[in-house]
């Protein structure tokens, strides 16, 4: 884990002096950039995450072993933490915003977050929480979610019950074997088997027929 005294050695990224540097611990000009596999422990989202950062570029004193933690090292920690937790990178968030054709300001309104928060994520100052990352992924991944959460089209009852199946999604979920009248061959959807079975019974009840024997249109 990074020692706390490292905070005093921070410099702006890309503004490093050429090596070797003077060591603050032993006073020798022996600090040089070294690559190391670093066992990191980083607190994020209220939890401590332990993982190894491969080939961390870290200034180390060749005389006494003192390690110097800079902004560049911080950035490597953040990149490794994002990869370890599978969180969206700032570049991926930017690309997604562009792809869905929204401004950053509109995105913050739809998500109910401060513009400064999004700026910190995009500026690599702060890493989004797991829950916010999940929201971003769902928001960017499903046009229906964007429609439901944004502006005048916001759905007031969203989340109070399951969203009704659309005809296109019903077609995708036809049983594999035509003629089957039970839920046994019903593909398990992301809500799990029980909800799928409920859906079958609902559809059978409302149509008086069964999947595989009625035409889906
Ligand atoms: Zn030293």
What layout of secondary structure does this protein have?
Blueprint: E1 31-44, E2 47-61, H1 71-85, H2 90-99, H3 104-111, H4 115-122, H5 130-141, H6 143-149, H7 167-172, H8 193-207
Structure, explained:
This protein is of the alpha+beta class and 217 residues long. It folds into three domains: 4-85, Ubiquitin-like (UB roll) (Roll), CATH 3.10.20; 90-153, Orthogonal Bundle (434 Repressor (Amino-terminal Domain)), CATH 1.10.260; 167-207, no CATH class. The protein has helices at residues 71-85, 90-99, 104-111, 115-122, 130-141, 143-149, 167-172, 193-207; strands spanning 31-44, 47-61. Strand 1 (31-44) and strand 2 form a beta hairpin. The N and C termini lie far apart (60 Å). Mean pLDDT is 78; it is low at 3-8 and 175-217. Bound molecules: zinc ion (ZN). Residues 23, 25-26, 28, 30, 61, 63-64, 66 line the site of zinc ion (ZN).
């Amino acid at each position: 884990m990074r020692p706390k005294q490292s905070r005093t050695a921070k410099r702006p990224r890309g503004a490093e002096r050429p090596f070797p540097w003077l060591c603050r611990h032993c006073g020798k000009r022996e600090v040089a950039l070294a690559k190391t596999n670093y066992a990191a422990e980083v607190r994020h989202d209220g939890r401590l995450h332990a993982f190894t950062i491969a080939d961390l570029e870290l200034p180390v004193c060749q005389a006494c072993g003192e390690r110097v933690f800079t902004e560049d090292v911080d950035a490597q920690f953040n990149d490794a933490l994002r990869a370890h937790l599978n969180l969206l990178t700032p570049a991926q968030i930017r690309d997604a915003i562009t792809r869905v054709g929204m401004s950053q300001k509109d995105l913050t309104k739809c998500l109910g977050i401060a513009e400064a928060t999004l700026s910190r994520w995009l500026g690599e100052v702060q890493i989004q929480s797991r829950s916010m990352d999940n929201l971003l992924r769902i928001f960017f991944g499903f046009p229906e979610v964007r429609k439901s959460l944004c502006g005048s089209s916001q759905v007031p009852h969203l989340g109070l019950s399951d969203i009704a199946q659309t005809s296109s999604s019903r077609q995708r979920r036809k049983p594999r074997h035509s003629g089957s009248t039970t839920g046994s061959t019903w593909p398990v959807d992301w809500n799990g088997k029980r909800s799928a079975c409920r859906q079958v019974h609902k559809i059978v009840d409302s149509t008086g027929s069964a999947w595989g024997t009625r035409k889906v249109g």
